[in-house]
């Protein structure tokens, strides 16, 4: 519970002081001691009071049912925020006496809409428009005040109401209204305790006494006072809709054409048709003659009738639409009339809205809108050429000088029968072209995907064919080596073995044994080559192959230093090529470099394998590195083997400073 920080301050004793409190101050539960008069009793828990300054609202806990309008009371309590402005939470209420209700102030609609007299008694004058029940015990009277209509909520049943429609009324009531969550007045209304507070100052004419009025004379200057009394019109029903809208073509003689200037021809009279909104929808048939009474209002571009009643109907001839050009359709002269557009229109689109379907059309390049109030979609294709019949409705207007001119009109169709197909839509509409283009694009895309898949399959097949052909060729070469060179070397080795058993001079014996050793090494190399050719999958140990080179170095050869570091596993062909590159580089150093030391280095990083052969010999010339020496093919062979395994080779050499052959192999290309 909030406690006031101003408890020592005197209590609020005027209604205006309570009413004008800021919202935050009213929450502080400021003390109140107010003497006022009851102006309206809402229920046992709420009442409204006034003093000489303003009005406010009271809230009781527990409720009180002994209060009456006119009671003079003293209220003690605290402030409360209220929905719109502050009021009083009553702690104690004392009835001081009973007298006349608080004085009522004359109020206009604007006074009520601004909240000036909110929760105070007011006097409002106007013309009774409609009277309907709110529930069994309450009624709703709609009161025309000038051009505005105000709700009057009466706490009395409809059966006890006097004849109020089209009568001039003076009403004494409590000003109130609907309040939103932002403490804003959304719309005003007034509260009446019973029908005694509704006084008829001028009774309405009986319906049968109302004169028949021409449609084109409604709301003209001097035609009636403000607000306008009911008018009675007679004419032919053009269209009637389930929402209570009726369109009537006036049967009274039209007035003579009006002149605009001496030189210009007189303009035809305004459309003799009118739009009517019935209080309750009535099943009217187009073509029937009807008498209808209602209140003239300006709704749109032409006068119409609101809160209307059908007095009588009788069968008549079906109305013929006025055949109009597109210009006449849009100039306002046929507003609310049944028209037939002389120029066909092409349907561009249609879609559902809250009431039915909206059609978008084009006629001679001019866009049009038509409305079809039905639940089922029209059986039309986009691009269809149609003729339209319907009610012309001016949608907007513009002012030129002192004259208002129609700017745009639409067509309200009575049913699908108002649409007559002139030419069917061409087969190749925009929608179908889009669909066909989409299908064609899909076919092309599928074809491209299929071609790409076939190319991949052809590539895989070609790779397999190449691999199989390579394997077959390697196997053939291996067989040829085994059946020719290796057999011949075996035979030569046997002959050398036989020669060593015979008496020979020491020099000859040494030569034969050296030759026998050379043949054995050639046989070993041939066997290794055959094994490499036959083995394409097994991983080979390059370390062992390089160490074998060291063991085969000839006597009195330069020292071969091995600097070998761990490398990832590599396939047999790659190992073979690297071993042969190392062998060739070492052989070149032995033959040509006159080196005293050769270093063989092997290492790898995360993405590169490096093999280098360095000697301290006499070096190579630039020409020997790039083109090779005449009659020698060592460097050329090294380059070819590097290309086989996608490696790069580089020679670094200077005269008298040795040579370094470096082979760099990316690890991602360890295949041939």
Description:
There is one protein chain. The chain has 672 residues and is of the alpha+beta class. It contains ten helices and 32 strands. The chain has a five-stranded mixed β-barrel. A five-stranded mixed beta barrel has the order 7-8-9-11-10. The protein has a five-stranded mixed β-barrel with strand order 13-14-15-17-16. α5 runs antiparallel to α6 (506-534), α7 (542-551) packs parallel to α8 (572-593) and α8 (572-593) runs antiparallel to α10. Residues 1-7 have low confidence and may be disordered.
Tell me the layout of helices and strands.
Elements: H1 15-19, H2 23-26, E1 31-43, E2 46-50, E3 55-59, E4 71-80, E5 87-98, E6 105-106, H3 109-113, E7 121-133, E8 139-145, E9 148-154, E10 168-179, E11 185-192, E12 198-202, E13 231-240, E14 245-250, E15 273-278, E16 289-299, E17 302-314, E18 322-324, H4 326-330, E19 338-341, E20 345-352, E21 357-363, E22 366-372, E23 385-400, E24 403-413, E25 419-423, H5 430-500, H6 506-534, E26 539-540, H7 542-551, E27 559-564, E28 570-571, H8 572-593, E29 597-604, E30 608-615, H9 622-626, H10 634-644, E31 648-653, E32 659-666
Parallel strand pairs: 3-5, 6-7, 9-11, 15-17, 18-19, 22-24, 27-29
Antiparallel strand pairs: 1-2, 1-4, 2-3, 4-5, 7-8, 7-10, 8-9, 10-11, 10-12, 13-14, 13-16, 14-15, 16-17, 19-23, 20-21, 20-23, 21-22, 23-24, 23-25, 26-28, 29-30, 30-32, 31-32
Helix pairs in contact: 5-6, 7-8, 8-10
């Amino acid at each position: 519970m909030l406690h006031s920080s101003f408890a020592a301050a005197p209590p609020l004793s005027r209604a205006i002081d309570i009413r004008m409190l800021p919202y935050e101050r009213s929450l502080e539960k400021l003390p109140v001691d107010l003497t006022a008069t009851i102006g309206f009793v809402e229920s046992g828990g709420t009442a409204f009071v006034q003093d000489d300054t303003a009005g406010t609202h009271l809230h009781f806990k527990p409720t009180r049912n002994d209060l009456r309008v006119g009671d003079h009371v003293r209220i003690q309590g605290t402030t409360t925020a209220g929905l719109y402005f502050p009021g009083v939470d009553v702690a104690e209420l004392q009835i001081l006496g009973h007298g006349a209700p608080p004085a009522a102030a004359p109020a206009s609609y604007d006074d009520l809409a601004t909240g000036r007299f909110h929760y105070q008694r007011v006097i409002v004058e106007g013309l009774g428009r409609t009277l309907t029940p709110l529930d069994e015990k309450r009624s709703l009277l709609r009161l025309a005040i000038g051009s505005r209509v105000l709700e009057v909520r009466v706490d009395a049943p409809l059966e006890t109401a006097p004849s109020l429609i089209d009568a001039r009324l003076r009403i004494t009531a409590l000003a109130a209204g609907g309040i939103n969550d932002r403490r804003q007045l959304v719309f005003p209304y007034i509260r009446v305790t019973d029908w005694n507070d509704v006084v008829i100052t001028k009774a309405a004419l009986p319906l049968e006494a109302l004169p028949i009025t021409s449609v084109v004379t409604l709301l003209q200057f001097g035609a009636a006072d403000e607000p306008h009394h009911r008018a009675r019109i007679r004419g032919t029903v053009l269209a009637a809709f389930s929402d209570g809208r009726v369109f009537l073509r006036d049967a009274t003689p039209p007035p003579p054409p009006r002149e605009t200037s001496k030189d210009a021809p007189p303009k035809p009279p305004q459309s003799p048709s009118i739009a009517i909104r019935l209080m309750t929808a009535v099943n009217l048939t187009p073509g029937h003659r009807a008498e209808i009474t209602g209140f003239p209002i300006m709704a749109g571009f032409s006068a119409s009738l609101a809160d209307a009643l059908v007095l009588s109907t009788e069968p008549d001839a079906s109305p013929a639409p006025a055949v109009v050009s597109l210009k006449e359709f849009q100039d306002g002269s046929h507003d609310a009339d049944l028209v037939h557009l002389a120029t066909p229109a092409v349907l561009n689109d249609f879609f559902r809205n809250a009431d039915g379907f909206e059609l978008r059309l084009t006629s001679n390049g001019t866009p049009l809108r038509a409305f079809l109030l039905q639940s089922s979609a029209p059986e039309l294709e986009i691009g269809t050429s149609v003729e339209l019949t319907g009610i012309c409705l001016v949608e907007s207007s513009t002012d030129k000088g002192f004259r208002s001119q129609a700017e745009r009109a639409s067509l309200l169709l009575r049913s699908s029968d108002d649409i007559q197909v002139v030419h069917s839509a061409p087969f190749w509409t925009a929608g179908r072209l889009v669909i066909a283009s989409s299908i064609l694009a899909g076919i092309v895309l599928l074809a491209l995907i299929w071609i790409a898949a076939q190319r991949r399959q052809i590539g895989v097949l070609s790779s397999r064919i190449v691999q199989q052909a390579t394997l077959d060729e390697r196997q053939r070469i291996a067989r040829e080596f085994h059946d020719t060179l290796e057999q011949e070397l075996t035979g030569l080795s046997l002959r050398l073995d036989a020669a060593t058993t015979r008496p020979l001079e020491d020099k000859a014996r040494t030569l034969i044994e050296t030759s026998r050793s050379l043949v054995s090494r050639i046989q070993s190399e041939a066997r290794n080559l055959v094994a490499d050719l036959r083995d394409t999958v097994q991983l080979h140990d390059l370390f062992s192959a390089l160490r074998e080179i060291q063991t085969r170095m000839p006597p009195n050869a330069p020292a071969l230093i091995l600097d070998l570091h761990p490398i990832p596993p590599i396939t047999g062909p790659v190992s073979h090529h690297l071993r042969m590159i190392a062998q060739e580089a070492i052989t070149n150093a032995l033959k040509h470099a006159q080196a005293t030391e050769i270093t063989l280095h092997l290492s790898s990083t995360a993405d590169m394998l490096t093999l280098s052969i360095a000697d301290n010999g006499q070096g190579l010339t630039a020409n020997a590195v790039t083109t090779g020496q005449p009659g020698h093919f060592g460097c050329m062979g090294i380059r070819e083997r590097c290309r086989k395994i996608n490696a790069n080779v580089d020679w670094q050499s200077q005269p008298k400073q040795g040579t370094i052959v470096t082979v760099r192999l990316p690890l991602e290309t360890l295949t041939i």
